[in-house]
Design goal:
Helix content: 25-40%
Shape: globular
Distance between the termini: 8 Å
Length: 463
Protein backbone atom coordinates (compact mmCIF):
# COMPACT_ATOMS: atom_id res chain seq x y z
CA UNK A 1 0.00 0.00 0.00
CA UNK A 2 1.24 3.46 -0.91
CA UNK A 3 0.39 7.07 -0.15
CA UNK A 4 1.00 9.58 -2.94
CA UNK A 5 1.07 13.32 -2.26
CA UNK A 6 -0.01 15.13 -5.40
CA UNK A 7 -1.21 18.46 -4.01
CA UNK A 8 -1.58 20.47 -0.85
CA UNK A 9 1.50 18.83 0.69
CA UNK A 10 4.06 21.61 1.12
CA UNK A 11 1.51 24.32 0.33
CA UNK A 12 -1.96 25.23 1.55
CA UNK A 13 -3.96 24.98 -1.69
CA UNK A 14 -4.73 22.28 -4.22
CA UNK A 15 -5.28 19.42 -1.77
CA UNK A 16 -4.94 16.00 -3.44
CA UNK A 17 -3.64 12.74 -1.90
CA UNK A 18 -3.79 9.21 -3.28
CA UNK A 19 -4.09 5.78 -1.66
CA UNK A 20 -2.88 2.90 -3.83
CA UNK A 21 -3.65 -0.66 -2.66
CA UNK A 22 -4.86 -3.99 -4.09
CA UNK A 23 -4.28 -2.68 -7.59
CA UNK A 24 -6.75 0.15 -6.95
CA UNK A 25 -6.19 3.90 -6.73
CA UNK A 26 -8.37 6.45 -4.97
CA UNK A 27 -7.71 10.12 -4.31
CA UNK A 28 -8.96 12.21 -1.45
CA UNK A 29 -9.85 15.64 -2.82
CA UNK A 30 -9.01 17.26 -6.13
CA UNK A 31 -8.43 20.85 -5.11
CA UNK A 32 -7.67 23.85 -7.26
CA UNK A 33 -4.14 25.16 -6.72
CA UNK A 34 -4.22 28.93 -6.19
CA UNK A 35 -1.28 31.28 -6.56
CA UNK A 36 0.72 32.85 -9.39
CA UNK A 37 -1.38 32.60 -12.55
CA UNK A 38 1.09 30.70 -14.76
CA UNK A 39 2.23 28.33 -12.00
CA UNK A 40 -1.35 27.63 -10.95
CA UNK A 41 -2.36 26.88 -14.53
CA UNK A 42 0.53 24.46 -15.03
CA UNK A 43 -0.16 22.56 -11.78
CA UNK A 44 -3.93 22.41 -12.24
CA UNK A 45 -3.66 21.12 -15.80
CA UNK A 46 -1.18 18.38 -14.84
CA UNK A 47 -2.18 16.51 -11.65
CA UNK A 48 0.79 14.12 -11.95
CA UNK A 49 -1.07 10.84 -12.56
CA UNK A 50 -3.27 9.16 -15.14
CA UNK A 51 -6.80 10.19 -14.15
CA UNK A 52 -8.23 7.30 -16.18
CA UNK A 53 -6.69 4.79 -13.74
CA UNK A 54 -8.54 6.12 -10.68
CA UNK A 55 -11.25 3.94 -9.13
CA UNK A 56 -12.92 6.60 -7.00
CA UNK A 57 -12.57 10.05 -5.46
CA UNK A 58 -13.33 10.85 -1.82
CA UNK A 59 -14.20 14.50 -1.30
CA UNK A 60 -13.73 16.07 2.15
CA UNK A 61 -15.72 19.26 1.62
CA UNK A 62 -16.78 21.80 -0.97
CA UNK A 63 -14.13 24.51 -0.60
CA UNK A 64 -12.60 25.20 -4.00
CA UNK A 65 -9.05 24.29 -2.87
CA UNK A 66 -10.41 20.78 -2.19
CA UNK A 67 -13.04 20.27 -4.92
CA UNK A 68 -12.19 22.87 -7.55
CA UNK A 69 -10.14 20.70 -9.91
CA UNK A 70 -12.63 17.83 -10.13
CA UNK A 71 -13.72 18.95 -13.63
CA UNK A 72 -10.10 18.75 -14.84
CA UNK A 73 -9.70 15.23 -13.42
CA UNK A 74 -12.90 14.15 -15.19
CA UNK A 75 -11.80 15.85 -18.42
CA UNK A 76 -8.53 13.89 -18.20
CA UNK A 77 -10.33 10.54 -18.11
CA UNK A 78 -11.76 9.79 -14.66
CA UNK A 79 -15.16 8.12 -14.97
CA UNK A 80 -15.86 6.75 -11.49
CA UNK A 81 -17.86 7.99 -8.50
CA UNK A 82 -17.06 11.03 -6.35
CA UNK A 83 -18.10 10.25 -2.75
CA UNK A 84 -18.97 12.92 -0.17
CA UNK A 85 -21.55 13.80 2.46
CA UNK A 86 -24.99 14.75 1.15
CA UNK A 87 -24.49 18.41 2.11
CA UNK A 88 -21.11 18.48 0.36
CA UNK A 89 -22.55 17.09 -2.87
CA UNK A 90 -25.17 19.85 -2.97
CA UNK A 91 -22.62 22.55 -2.19
CA UNK A 92 -20.10 21.19 -4.68
CA UNK A 93 -22.63 21.56 -7.49
CA UNK A 94 -22.84 25.26 -6.73
CA UNK A 95 -19.10 25.71 -6.29
CA UNK A 96 -18.09 23.99 -9.52
CA UNK A 97 -20.65 25.76 -11.68
CA UNK A 98 -19.58 29.09 -10.23
CA UNK A 99 -15.90 28.28 -10.60
CA UNK A 100 -16.34 27.42 -14.28
CA UNK A 101 -18.33 30.61 -14.86
CA UNK A 102 -15.81 32.83 -13.05
CA UNK A 103 -12.90 31.30 -14.97
CA UNK A 104 -14.69 31.96 -18.25
CA UNK A 105 -15.50 35.55 -17.23
CA UNK A 106 -11.98 36.27 -16.01
CA UNK A 107 -10.50 34.82 -19.20
CA UNK A 108 -12.78 37.04 -21.29
CA UNK A 109 -11.83 40.11 -19.24
CA UNK A 110 -8.10 39.41 -19.51
CA UNK A 111 -8.42 38.68 -23.22
CA UNK A 112 -9.57 42.26 -23.76
CA UNK A 113 -6.05 43.27 -22.71
CA UNK A 114 -4.21 40.47 -24.54
CA UNK A 115 -6.10 41.15 -27.76
CA UNK A 116 -5.07 44.80 -27.66
CA UNK A 117 -1.45 43.75 -27.16
CA UNK A 118 -1.54 41.02 -29.83
CA UNK A 119 -0.91 38.27 -27.27
CA UNK A 120 -2.18 34.68 -27.36
CA UNK A 121 -5.75 34.44 -25.99
CA UNK A 122 -6.30 32.79 -22.59
CA UNK A 123 -8.61 29.76 -22.35
CA UNK A 124 -10.40 28.92 -19.10
CA UNK A 125 -9.04 25.90 -17.24
CA UNK A 126 -12.38 24.16 -17.69
CA UNK A 127 -15.87 24.91 -18.96
CA UNK A 128 -19.39 24.63 -17.60
CA UNK A 129 -19.72 21.34 -19.49
CA UNK A 130 -16.64 19.98 -17.70
CA UNK A 131 -18.11 21.05 -14.37
CA UNK A 132 -21.40 19.30 -15.17
CA UNK A 133 -19.50 16.11 -15.99
CA UNK A 134 -17.95 16.13 -12.50
CA UNK A 135 -21.27 16.98 -10.85
CA UNK A 136 -22.93 13.98 -12.49
CA UNK A 137 -20.48 11.69 -10.65
CA UNK A 138 -21.23 12.96 -7.13
CA UNK A 139 -22.62 10.36 -4.70
CA UNK A 140 -23.94 11.50 -1.31
CA UNK A 141 -23.54 9.67 2.02
CA UNK A 142 -24.21 10.39 5.69
CA UNK A 143 -21.76 10.68 8.56
CA UNK A 144 -20.75 7.26 9.98
CA UNK A 145 -21.97 5.42 6.88
CA UNK A 146 -19.47 2.82 5.63
CA UNK A 147 -18.62 3.43 1.95
CA UNK A 148 -16.65 1.02 -0.23
CA UNK A 149 -14.39 3.12 -2.43
CA UNK A 150 -12.62 0.18 -4.12
CA UNK A 151 -12.03 -3.52 -3.30
CA UNK A 152 -10.58 -3.64 0.22
CA UNK A 153 -10.77 0.15 0.73
CA UNK A 154 -13.59 1.50 2.89
CA UNK A 155 -14.24 4.94 4.32
CA UNK A 156 -16.33 6.38 7.14
CA UNK A 157 -16.99 10.11 7.52
CA UNK A 158 -16.76 11.99 10.82
CA UNK A 159 -17.80 15.59 11.44
CA UNK A 160 -14.85 17.90 10.72
CA UNK A 161 -16.35 21.05 12.25
CA UNK A 162 -14.85 23.09 9.40
CA UNK A 163 -17.77 23.96 7.10
CA UNK A 164 -21.24 22.59 6.38
CA UNK A 165 -20.92 18.90 5.47
CA UNK A 166 -17.13 18.71 5.90
CA UNK A 167 -15.71 15.33 6.85
CA UNK A 168 -12.73 13.76 8.53
CA UNK A 169 -12.08 10.46 6.73
CA UNK A 170 -11.44 7.21 8.60
CA UNK A 171 -10.20 4.75 5.96
CA UNK A 172 -9.53 1.04 6.43
CA UNK A 173 -7.46 -0.79 3.85
CA UNK A 174 -7.28 -4.58 3.80
CA UNK A 175 -4.35 -5.86 1.79
CA UNK A 176 -2.73 -9.31 1.84
CA UNK A 177 -4.55 -10.25 5.03
CA UNK A 178 -3.50 -7.12 6.92
CA UNK A 179 -5.67 -4.16 7.87
CA UNK A 180 -4.27 -0.64 7.85
CA UNK A 181 -6.17 2.31 9.32
CA UNK A 182 -5.60 5.74 7.85
CA UNK A 183 -7.10 8.99 9.10
CA UNK A 184 -7.38 12.21 7.11
CA UNK A 185 -7.82 15.34 9.22
CA UNK A 186 -7.57 17.82 6.34
CA UNK A 187 -9.27 20.24 6.99
CA UNK A 188 -9.84 20.02 10.74
CA UNK A 189 -12.15 22.64 12.23
CA UNK A 190 -12.46 24.38 15.57
CA UNK A 191 -14.77 24.28 18.54
CA UNK A 192 -17.37 26.98 19.18
CA UNK A 193 -17.78 28.14 15.59
CA UNK A 194 -21.24 29.50 14.77
CA UNK A 195 -23.81 27.40 12.89
CA UNK A 196 -21.80 24.18 12.49
CA UNK A 197 -21.10 21.38 14.94
CA UNK A 198 -17.79 20.80 16.72
CA UNK A 199 -15.34 18.27 15.20
CA UNK A 200 -15.63 14.59 16.15
CA UNK A 201 -12.76 12.32 17.16
CA UNK A 202 -12.31 9.35 14.86
CA UNK A 203 -11.10 5.95 16.18
CA UNK A 204 -7.36 5.33 16.60
CA UNK A 205 -5.36 5.04 13.36
CA UNK A 206 -2.00 3.71 12.20
CA UNK A 207 -1.36 6.70 9.95
CA UNK A 208 -2.72 10.22 10.27
CA UNK A 209 -2.58 12.70 7.38
CA UNK A 210 -3.20 16.04 9.06
CA UNK A 211 -3.21 19.67 8.07
CA UNK A 212 -0.72 22.16 9.52
CA UNK A 213 -2.10 25.46 8.21
CA UNK A 214 -1.83 27.10 11.63
CA UNK A 215 0.68 24.67 13.11
CA UNK A 216 2.80 27.49 14.53
CA UNK A 217 0.00 29.74 15.78
CA UNK A 218 -2.69 30.02 18.41
CA UNK A 219 -5.96 31.61 17.34
CA UNK A 220 -7.95 34.16 19.22
CA UNK A 221 -11.03 32.72 20.89
CA UNK A 222 -13.77 32.10 18.31
CA UNK A 223 -16.22 33.53 20.83
CA UNK A 224 -14.52 36.94 20.39
CA UNK A 225 -14.99 37.10 16.61
CA UNK A 226 -18.27 39.00 16.74
CA UNK A 227 -16.96 41.78 18.99
CA UNK A 228 -13.81 42.19 16.90
CA UNK A 229 -15.92 42.53 13.78
CA UNK A 230 -18.22 45.07 15.47
CA UNK A 231 -15.29 47.25 16.45
CA UNK A 232 -13.84 47.37 12.93
CA UNK A 233 -17.19 48.12 11.30
CA UNK A 234 -18.13 50.83 13.81
CA UNK A 235 -14.76 52.62 13.44
CA UNK A 236 -14.95 52.54 9.65
CA UNK A 237 -18.52 53.79 9.52
CA UNK A 238 -17.64 56.62 11.89
CA UNK A 239 -15.11 57.83 9.28
CA UNK A 240 -17.75 57.55 6.55
CA UNK A 241 -16.02 54.60 4.88
CA UNK A 242 -17.17 51.22 3.75
CA UNK A 243 -16.04 47.80 4.95
CA UNK A 244 -14.93 45.38 2.23
CA UNK A 245 -14.69 41.73 3.30
CA UNK A 246 -13.24 39.13 0.90
CA UNK A 247 -14.91 35.91 2.00
CA UNK A 248 -15.23 32.34 0.86
CA UNK A 249 -18.76 32.03 -0.49
CA UNK A 250 -19.16 28.83 1.46
CA UNK A 251 -19.42 29.08 5.28
CA UNK A 252 -17.44 32.26 5.93
CA UNK A 253 -19.94 34.47 4.10
CA UNK A 254 -22.80 32.90 6.06
CA UNK A 255 -20.97 33.32 9.38
CA UNK A 256 -20.35 36.99 8.62
CA UNK A 257 -23.99 37.67 7.75
CA UNK A 258 -25.03 35.87 10.93
CA UNK A 259 -22.65 37.87 13.14
CA UNK A 260 -23.42 41.28 11.59
CA UNK A 261 -27.19 40.74 11.70
CA UNK A 262 -26.96 39.59 15.32
CA UNK A 263 -25.05 42.77 16.21
CA UNK A 264 -27.72 44.91 14.55
CA UNK A 265 -30.54 43.04 16.25
CA UNK A 266 -28.80 43.55 19.60
CA UNK A 267 -28.47 47.28 18.94
CA UNK A 268 -24.66 47.12 18.83
CA UNK A 269 -24.43 48.30 15.20
CA UNK A 270 -26.52 50.67 13.14
CA UNK A 271 -28.86 48.96 10.70
CA UNK A 272 -27.02 49.79 7.48
CA UNK A 273 -26.87 47.85 4.22
CA UNK A 274 -24.93 44.60 4.17
CA UNK A 275 -24.37 43.54 0.57
CA UNK A 276 -23.77 39.88 -0.17
CA UNK A 277 -22.21 40.37 -3.58
CA UNK A 278 -21.78 36.78 -4.65
CA UNK A 279 -24.49 34.81 -6.48
CA UNK A 280 -22.81 31.64 -5.29
CA UNK A 281 -22.83 32.75 -1.65
CA UNK A 282 -26.54 33.50 -1.93
CA UNK A 283 -27.18 30.02 -3.34
CA UNK A 284 -25.04 28.42 -0.65
CA UNK A 285 -26.98 30.27 2.02
CA UNK A 286 -30.18 28.62 0.82
CA UNK A 287 -28.55 25.19 1.21
CA UNK A 288 -28.20 25.86 4.94
CA UNK A 289 -32.00 25.86 5.18
CA UNK A 290 -32.13 22.57 3.29
CA UNK A 291 -29.63 20.74 5.53
CA UNK A 292 -30.56 21.71 9.08
CA UNK A 293 -29.55 18.23 10.29
CA UNK A 294 -25.89 19.25 9.80
CA UNK A 295 -26.18 22.43 11.88
CA UNK A 296 -25.97 23.25 15.59
CA UNK A 297 -28.11 25.14 18.11
CA UNK A 298 -26.87 28.53 16.85
CA UNK A 299 -28.76 27.92 13.64
CA UNK A 300 -31.99 27.23 15.51
CA UNK A 301 -31.59 30.49 17.45
CA UNK A 302 -30.88 32.37 14.24
CA UNK A 303 -34.08 31.00 12.69
CA UNK A 304 -36.11 32.33 15.63
CA UNK A 305 -34.61 35.84 15.37
CA UNK A 306 -34.12 36.36 11.66
CA UNK A 307 -36.26 33.78 9.88
CA UNK A 308 -33.30 33.03 7.61
CA UNK A 309 -29.88 34.48 6.94
CA UNK A 310 -31.13 36.46 3.92
CA UNK A 311 -34.40 37.58 5.51
CA UNK A 312 -33.38 40.79 7.40
CA UNK A 313 -34.12 43.92 5.29
CA UNK A 314 -30.55 45.20 5.64
CA UNK A 315 -29.12 42.05 4.01
CA UNK A 316 -29.15 42.59 0.25
CA UNK A 317 -28.04 39.95 -2.23
CA UNK A 318 -26.90 41.32 -5.57
CA UNK A 319 -27.25 38.48 -8.09
CA UNK A 320 -27.00 40.51 -11.31
CA UNK A 321 -23.93 42.22 -12.74
CA UNK A 322 -25.85 45.50 -12.89
CA UNK A 323 -26.69 45.34 -9.17
CA UNK A 324 -23.08 44.54 -8.35
CA UNK A 325 -21.80 47.46 -10.43
CA UNK A 326 -24.25 49.79 -8.68
CA UNK A 327 -22.82 48.83 -5.29
CA UNK A 328 -19.25 49.09 -6.52
CA UNK A 329 -19.79 52.56 -7.94
CA UNK A 330 -21.69 54.05 -4.99
CA UNK A 331 -20.34 55.95 -1.97
CA UNK A 332 -22.81 54.35 0.46
CA UNK A 333 -21.50 53.63 3.95
CA UNK A 334 -22.06 49.87 4.18
CA UNK A 335 -20.51 46.41 4.42
CA UNK A 336 -19.71 44.46 1.26
CA UNK A 337 -19.09 40.73 1.56
CA UNK A 338 -17.83 39.33 -1.75
CA UNK A 339 -15.96 36.32 -3.13
CA UNK A 340 -13.33 35.06 -3.65
CA UNK A 341 -11.83 34.62 -0.21
CA UNK A 342 -8.20 34.96 -1.36
CA UNK A 343 -8.98 37.86 -3.73
CA UNK A 344 -7.89 35.91 -6.79
CA UNK A 345 -11.12 35.83 -8.77
CA UNK A 346 -14.66 37.15 -8.79
CA UNK A 347 -16.45 40.34 -7.80
CA UNK A 348 -14.20 41.16 -4.84
CA UNK A 349 -11.55 42.32 -7.33
CA UNK A 350 -13.87 45.04 -8.65
CA UNK A 351 -14.69 46.24 -5.13
CA UNK A 352 -11.01 46.34 -4.21
CA UNK A 353 -10.16 48.18 -7.42
CA UNK A 354 -12.67 50.93 -6.59
CA UNK A 355 -12.10 51.08 -2.81
CA UNK A 356 -8.43 50.38 -2.13
CA UNK A 357 -7.18 53.94 -2.65
CA UNK A 358 -9.65 55.49 -0.17
CA UNK A 359 -8.14 55.79 3.34
CA UNK A 360 -11.61 55.87 4.93
CA UNK A 361 -12.32 52.30 3.81
CA UNK A 362 -11.28 49.11 5.59
CA UNK A 363 -10.52 45.72 4.06
CA UNK A 364 -11.17 42.98 6.60
CA UNK A 365 -9.38 39.65 6.12
CA UNK A 366 -11.18 36.77 7.85
CA UNK A 367 -9.58 33.68 6.33
CA UNK A 368 -6.27 32.12 5.39
CA UNK A 369 -4.48 33.78 2.46
CA UNK A 370 -2.13 31.55 0.48
CA UNK A 371 1.27 32.71 -0.69
CA UNK A 372 1.37 34.75 -3.92
CA UNK A 373 -2.33 35.66 -3.75
CA UNK A 374 -3.65 39.22 -3.66
CA UNK A 375 -5.16 38.45 -0.27
CA UNK A 376 -1.71 37.57 1.10
CA UNK A 377 -0.26 40.83 -0.25
CA UNK A 378 -3.01 42.71 1.56
CA UNK A 379 -2.29 40.86 4.81
CA UNK A 380 1.37 41.82 4.39
CA UNK A 381 0.25 45.48 4.16
CA UNK A 382 2.00 45.99 0.83
CA UNK A 383 1.83 49.63 -0.28
CA UNK A 384 1.11 48.82 -3.92
CA UNK A 385 -0.85 45.89 -5.35
CA UNK A 386 -1.90 44.79 -8.81
CA UNK A 387 -5.55 44.20 -9.63
CA UNK A 388 -6.44 43.02 -13.14
CA UNK A 389 -2.89 43.87 -14.18
CA UNK A 390 -3.07 47.51 -13.07
CA UNK A 391 -1.13 48.92 -10.09
CA UNK A 392 -2.99 50.60 -7.21
CA UNK A 393 -1.69 52.40 -4.14
CA UNK A 394 -3.17 50.78 -1.04
CA UNK A 395 -4.51 53.58 1.13
CA UNK A 396 -7.41 51.66 2.67
CA UNK A 397 -6.77 50.06 6.03
CA UNK A 398 -6.32 46.28 6.26
CA UNK A 399 -7.38 44.41 9.39
CA UNK A 400 -6.89 40.66 9.87
CA UNK A 401 -9.26 38.88 12.27
CA UNK A 402 -7.78 35.48 13.15
CA UNK A 403 -10.68 34.61 15.47
CA UNK A 404 -12.74 33.84 12.36
CA UNK A 405 -10.47 31.05 11.21
CA UNK A 406 -12.26 27.75 10.59
CA UNK A 407 -8.95 25.82 10.80
CA UNK A 408 -7.63 24.18 13.94
CA UNK A 409 -4.67 25.95 15.52
CA UNK A 410 -1.49 24.41 16.97
CA UNK A 411 -3.08 23.32 20.25
CA UNK A 412 -6.16 21.89 18.52
CA UNK A 413 -4.00 19.86 16.14
CA UNK A 414 -1.81 18.43 18.90
CA UNK A 415 -4.87 17.52 20.97
CA UNK A 416 -6.48 15.78 18.00
CA UNK A 417 -3.34 13.81 17.15
CA UNK A 418 -3.07 12.62 20.76
CA UNK A 419 -6.68 11.41 20.67
CA UNK A 420 -6.29 9.25 17.54
CA UNK A 421 -2.86 7.95 18.63
CA UNK A 422 -1.18 7.35 15.24
CA UNK A 423 2.15 5.61 14.77
CA UNK A 424 3.00 7.92 11.88
CA UNK A 425 1.84 11.43 11.04
CA UNK A 426 2.14 13.11 7.65
CA UNK A 427 1.77 16.87 7.90
CA UNK A 428 0.30 18.50 4.81
CA UNK A 429 -1.64 21.62 3.88
CA UNK A 430 0.82 24.05 5.47
CA UNK A 431 3.71 26.33 4.67
CA UNK A 432 7.27 25.44 5.69
CA UNK A 433 7.45 27.30 9.00
CA UNK A 434 4.08 26.06 10.20
CA UNK A 435 4.75 22.43 9.30
CA UNK A 436 8.18 22.36 10.91
CA UNK A 437 6.95 24.00 14.10
CA UNK A 438 4.05 21.57 14.41
CA UNK A 439 6.29 18.59 13.67
CA UNK A 440 8.53 19.56 16.56
CA UNK A 441 5.57 19.98 18.88
CA UNK A 442 4.06 16.62 17.92
CA UNK A 443 7.38 14.82 18.34
CA UNK A 444 7.74 16.23 21.84
CA UNK A 445 4.14 15.65 22.87
CA UNK A 446 3.24 12.21 21.51
CA UNK A 447 6.44 10.63 20.18
CA UNK A 448 4.98 9.56 16.83
CA UNK A 449 7.09 9.56 13.67
CA UNK A 450 6.30 12.84 11.93
CA UNK A 451 7.01 13.31 8.22
CA UNK A 452 6.77 16.36 5.96
CA UNK A 453 6.00 15.15 2.43
CA UNK A 454 6.54 17.28 -0.66
CA UNK A 455 4.39 17.39 -3.78
CA UNK A 456 5.07 14.20 -5.75
CA UNK A 457 6.37 12.14 -2.81
CA UNK A 458 5.35 8.48 -2.53
CA UNK A 459 5.46 6.60 0.78
CA UNK A 460 4.98 2.87 1.36
CA UNK A 461 2.64 2.07 4.25
CA UNK A 462 2.53 -1.09 6.34
CA UNK A 463 5.71 -2.67 4.99
Amino acid sequence: MKLHFYGGADTVTGSMHMIEANGSRIIRDAGLFQGRREEARRINENPGFDAGTLDAILLSHAHIDHCGNLPTICKLGFNGAIHATTATTRLTEIMLRDSAYIQSQDAAYLNQKTNRKGMQPIDPLYTIADAESAISRLRGHHYHEAVELAPGIRSEAYEAGHILGSELSYITVEEQGRIHKIGFAVDLGRHNLPLIRDPETMPPVDVLVMESTYGNRKHGDAKNAREQLREVIAKTWKKGGRVIIPAFALERAQELIYHISSLMLDGKLEKRSVYLDSPMAAEVTKVFDQHTDYLDDDYAEMKKEMGCLLCPPWVKATPSVEESKAVTGSDEVCVVVAASGMCEHGRILHHLKHSIENPDNTIVIVGYQAMHTLGRRLVEQQKEVKIFGDTFERKAGVVTLDAFSAHADRDDLVTYAKAVNPGRIFLVHGEKEAREALAGELTREIGAEVLLPKRGDVVEIGS
